[in-house]
Amino acid sequence: MLTKKVKAERFRAMRRRNYRASLKLEGFELDALSVAEQASEVALSEEALIAKLKKAYAR
């Protein structure tokens, strides 16, 4: 049985994948984030992650 912490981590990971998929569907360039940055996103708070993505994808 999964703990609340594991469930929350899986939910955040799924939300990140869905957000990236929606950006890709809208035509945003997703190659701007490197693999190292994606790995560091796991440790960021949700607010910091949103701010970082807004900065990266600002037009």
Tell me the count of domains. Answer: 1
- Name the structural class: mainly alpha
Average pLDDT, rounded to a whole number, is 78
Segments where pLDDT lies below 50 for 5+ residues?
none
Number of helices: 3
Pfam families: YhfG (PF10832)
Summarize it:
The protein is mostly helical and 59 residues long. It contains three helices and no strands. The model has no long low-confidence stretch (mean pLDDT 78).
Walk me through what this model shows.
It is a single chain. The protein is mostly helical and 59 residues long. The model has no long low-confidence stretch (mean pLDDT 78). The radius of gyration is 12 Å and the shape is flat. It contains 3 helices and no strands.
Provide the fold topology.
Layout: H1 4-25, H2 35-41, H3 46-57
State the main characteristics:
59 residues; single chain; 3 helices
